[in-house]
Amino acid sequence: MRDVSIIGIGQTPVGEHWDKGLRLLAYEALAAAMRDAQVERVDALYVGNMLSGELTAQEHLGALIADFAGLRGIEALKIEAACGSGAAALRIGYMAVASGMYDFVACIGVEKMTDQQGSTTTTGLATAADAEYEALHGVSFVSINALLMRRYMHEHGYKKEDFANFAINAHRNAVNNPNAMFPHLITLQQFAEAKPIADPINLLDSSPIADGAACVILAPTSIAREFTDKPVRVRAVAIATDTLALHDRRDPLYLEGAAISTQKAYAAAGVGPADIDLFELHDAFTIMSALSLEAAGFARRGRGVALALDNEISLGGRIPITTMGGLKARGHPVGATGMYQIVEVALQLRGEAGANQVRDARIGMAQNIGGSGATVVTTILERI
Amino acid sequence: MRDVSIIGIGQTPVGEHWDKGLRLLAYEALAAAMRDAQVERVDALYVGNMLSGELTAQEHLGALIADFAGLRGIEALKIEAACGSGAAALRIGYMAVASGMYDFVACIGVEKMTDQQGSTTTTGLATAADAEYEALHGVSFVSINALLMRRYMHEHGYKKEDFANFAINAHRNAVNNPNAMFPHLITLQQFAEAKPIADPINLLDSSPIADGAACVILAPTSIAREFTDKPVRVRAVAIATDTLALHDRRDPLYLEGAAISTQKAYAAAGVGPADIDLFELHDAFTIMSALSLEAAGFARRGRGVALALDNEISLGGRIPITTMGGLKARGHPVGATGMYQIVEVALQLRGEAGANQVRDARIGMAQNIGGSGATVVTTILERI
């Protein structure tokens, strides 16, 4: 297989884009990435998206976006793995270039969520869970995470406020991200007093739904420097699955899919947790940050929250996370999120993260989680 | 890239499976294919599906089916390209094996449509069209095809009954397919008197919505004979796109996406139309059969219908089509259809098509069309 690098990145601001449709958002990210890569054409296009059918009555996004972007004729497909769709599109693009099938591939994540009523969006998001055994009985995504958080607090002896620094850290980093949805600081007191959503989860444990699109252009590493001074090598992109329903897990507090996915990625890249300079994790809710840190080997079981308490997750800490605001403060356009994470890791490795630059960042990791951990995509990128 | 072969095939009957959910249908096809291939495990699973979110409130089919099938942990994703989703899943599986990433990959097409009210299904199917420029204005899929058929009749001087043999031939072949939804003969008189749906399209021009699942297991050709006496080599699987909206086409009667996709497939396989022993085409409506035959090089422009009139499309004809009943009479579970076509071509090449066996079939082709031609997947298979 050929070695693969990212030669261009692009993203739209994350937010409520009431003036822009799904195709325009996708196009803006794609056009920015193609300009960045200095390519005028790509051979194929893979679109990560979860809810275009449910929320905008539009499937067939591959052809839609290829057509709208003036790329009519090329291979173009939509890839879906719930909230893990964005990074799943990278996985397919990676195979297309690694195999030798194509030289230039665009991988887009796009989602348009804010035009709908909240109840429609909540119902849509629940399609990531088991429709017949979870959603049918009224479980929503936030309530699944509330069950996990309550159990974690009980098992490991944490109180609610111990999770605060995940949110505070994310908002602090979002301040310097021009594409973030909520670029403002929050305080411990605000966190403690935030409105409950599904106890013990409150508003500031939760990432916001949003509209947005992000894109990378892939090419063989052997020719990457013809297009950019700052290629970012894809050392690994690995997918693993777990039970769809939370109640089928042997241990609900252990994200086995995340652990397998991370181990596959570490093995493929020949690195371990100590080599990772920053980690864009899937902080849809604060509890997911803790579980992801543990599954990826950055903390022992029950100690993920302690990493936040000790402030080891900040830009200068042992393992910087959510360095551009994360899902919490950059925003969480579900099917696009995985691609935002990858673009942000690439920004760090290119030394273009501005005030949030992680010093000497050489290897970065992103972990994109679908559902309550049923699909996990782990990507390891390297500055070369 | 490695050479890839189909080492196992499986399918469920097509019909109204009110007693079976989506995951069970998918599992039955997968289990049959794995038994056929004599493998107990696959490395990855790609699921072609269009409407699970809209019709059964279930996304995240990759993890769902992997979990239900006892394959928890493996890479599993859903691939969507409207009615072209089934064959699109083959394309991704093909890349995964050709690249060397995986040795054993399952590609499934599955759709569950008949539990819903007809209006919900019609709205769902319209998500294959342009939501903002077609569907919003009331265009349904059958009305788009009616526009095409009316224009074709006008341009090329055919009358409505000239299309009859596409449907009669399909039903004749379905009689011997135990998995067909409508395995009974129809007459020219029945065709002429069938209820209008969207003039000039009537009920017997139209394929039925349905539930069903089909599956193939892929492996490197180099080891295929360890698992089956009848490997079927994937000579090509090629995807091309066209404008999403019909009104954006330079010539609405020319399926440019189909032409590009077919040319790519012919080039990759090193064959031409004269080498193809049978052609499973996308007869969602009779007009699509004519346009597909023309785009794929089996008839000149305006002469696709003449092929049917001359009965060159029957099992003993110049180019046998819809040999197991096609979308018309086998049934059209949209996201599964492309995989049914591939399984049926494989059956023919393995010499297992029973009374419908095309004599000495060595090379077969399938063409799976998404929307009104916006995504086209052309697959060429060979008996080895």
Tell me what the structure shows.
- The structure is a homodimer of 384-residue chains.
- With 384 residues, chain A is of the alpha/beta class.
- The first copy, chain A, folds into two domains: 4-117 and 210-232, Peroxisomal Thiolase, Chain A, domain 1 (3-Layer(aba) Sandwich); 127-208 and 235-383, Thiolase/Chalcone synthase (Peroxisomal Thiolase, Chain A, domain 1).
- The first copy, chain A, has 14 helices and eleven strands.
- Chain A has helices spanning 22-37, 52-56, 61-68, 85-98, 118-125, 141-156, 164-174, 188-193, 221-224, 256-269, 286-295, 304-309, 326-330, 334-349; strands spanning 4-11, 44-48, 75-80, 105-111, 196-198, 201-202, 212-220, 232-241, 278-280, 363-370, 375-383.
- In chain A, the strands form two sheets. A nine-stranded mixed β-sheet of chain A has the order 3-2-4-7-1-8-11-10-9, sandwiched between helices. In chain A, strands 5-6 form a two-stranded antiparallel sheet.
- In chain A, β10 and β11 (375-383) form a beta hairpin.
- The longest helix of chain A is centred in the N-terminal third of the chain and has 16 residues, at 22-37.
- Chain A is globular.
- The model of chain A has no long low-confidence stretch (mean pLDDT 97).
- At the A-B interface, α2, α3, β3, α4 and β8 of A face α2, α3, β3, α4 and β8 of B.
CATH superfamily of the largest domain in chain A: Thiolase/Chalcone synthase
Q: Helix segment count of chain A? A: 14
Structural class call of chain A reads alpha/beta
Radius of gyration of chain A: 19 Å
> What is the architecture of the largest domain in chain A at the second tier of CATH?
3-Layer(aba) Sandwich
Low-confidence stretches of chain A: none
Strand order of the largest sheet of chain A: 3-2-4-7-1-8-11-10-9
| CATH topology term of the largest domain in chain A | Peroxisomal Thiolase, Chain A, domain 1
Kindly report the average pLDDT value of chain A. 97
Structural domain count of chain A: 2
User: N- to C-terminal separation of chain A?
Assistant: 19 Å
Most extensive interface between two protein chains, with residue counts: A-B, 63 and 63 residues
CATH hierarchy, class of the largest domain in chain A: Alpha Beta
